[in-house]
Every structure is written in structure tokens, then in C-alpha cells.
Amino acid sequence: TLKTAENVAQVFMGFRIQCAQCHNHIFDRWTMDDYYSFAAFFPQVGRKTGEDYRETIVFNRGSGEVRHPVGNRVMAPKFLGGDTPDVAGKDRRAVLADWLTAPENPYFATSVANRVWAHFLGIGNVEPVDDIRVSNPPSNQKLFEELGGKLIEYGYDFKQLVRDICASQAYQRSTVRNESNQDDGRNFAHALVRRIPAEQLLDAICQVTDTKEKFRGLPLG
């Protein structure tokens, strides 16, 4: 349950809340109460093996609570930095998912858009992309918020956000540096030289060695 809560916070919002499991976060605003209240969305998640032993079925058990290690009190589910919702008779994961993708949620869209920006530019407005906290602010706060706002405006249509990013001057800048941006590594004043993806590397190797890669179940090349 705790690991699931940590993974959801880090993957979907870019928050590393692990520190708050044992004490109030020393680099961010999250407290132990925040940690265990957020974890309370997940104790009712059940898992069982399907007919195929390789299959895991995830379902809502409808029962289970999270207790605070200090005082052993039951923690009501509470959104990070948000309200305590009514979860009676509901799948807590569905309640959380609705909040995550709600237009008024300031965390999800900005985090996802920051990851897309980092994919194309080589570095995020917040870097690392999964370490968003008050002590690690964006290099460009307005751009960070604008990208998240655009993703919400587009109804989470990635293609439109990708089109905006790839049509931007920042994306089209040269990797060649000049005197004014020689040492600038945070303001997107020049393009970064990046590693090519594994798939492209394989294609390049096949091309220069004049060979064809064989994949199981697929024709040669």
C-alpha cells in the first residue's frame, strides 16, 4: 500500500513523498499526516493470480485502512495539498483518478507536460522530472504553468502539446553555443546534445554494418 502511494505520487505528480513516511519531509511541505492520508487511497486494492499464472488481477476489495504509526489512528483518504473527499461506498482509486485529472488540480498536468518537454528538449523545467518540490523550483515558472495549462486546455491531447513544443523556437535552436549562452544549461538558450533512443541506435548499427536485425515472429529486417 505505501509503495503504491509513493509510486502514484512520483509517476503522476512528480512528488517524492518517501521521506514523509518516517518524519516530516525536510525538503518539501509534506508531513507524515499527508503521507499516510494519501496512502489511505490504496489499502483496499486487492490482487490475485488469474487463470494464467502470469496474470495478476487487480480489484477493489472494499475494505482496509491505513493507520498512522504515531498513535495508531486510522487515516482518512486525503488528496496531497487538497481536501478530504467522501469515499463512502466508492472505489477510492476512482475518486483519486477523478481528482488527478480535474482541471483545477495544479499538479498532474504540469508534471506530465514537464515530462513531455524534457523528452524533446533533453531537460525539464523541473529537473529531475520526478522531483518536483518547493526546494527544486522550475527554471521557468511561467513556462512550467503554461505547458500544464495547455495540456488541460487540449483535453490531455498529447499530439497538440507535442506540436506546440516542436514548433517552438526553444526546440528548434542549434546545439552550437555562442558567447552569450556558452555556460547556460537551464534556460533553453541552445539545444542539448542527447543520446539517441535504443531503437534508433539499433537501426544505425544495422545500417553501418549492412546487416538486418531479426526479431522473433517478424520477417527479417
Question: How are the secondary structure elements laid out?
Answer:
Elements: H1 2-13, H2 32-39, E1 45-49, E2 56-60, E3 66-67, E4 74-75, H3 92-100, H4 108-121, H5 141-153, H6 158-166, H7 169-172, H8 198-208
Helix pairs in contact: 1-2, 4-5, 4-6
Q: Which key terms come to mind for this protein?
A:
mainly alpha, 8 helices, 221 residues, globular
Brief account:
By secondary structure, the chain is mostly helical.
What does this structure look like?
- The chain is mainly alpha-helical and 221 residues long.
- The protein contains 8 helices and 4 strands.
- The strands form 2 sheets. A two-stranded antiparallel sheet has the order 1-2.
- Helix 4 packs across helix 5.
Separation, N- and C-terminal Cα atoms: 44 Å
Total count of strands: 4
Instruction: Sum up the overall morphology in one term.
Output: globular
* Low-confidence region ranges: none
Bin the strand percentage.
5-15%
The main β sheet shows up as: 2 strands, antiparallel
| H/E series | HHEEEEHHHHHH
Mean pLDDT: 93
Alpha-beta classification: mainly alpha
Tally of contiguous helical segments: 8
- Overall radius of gyration: 22 Å
Strand order in the sheet with the most strands: 1-2
Helical fraction equals 25-40%
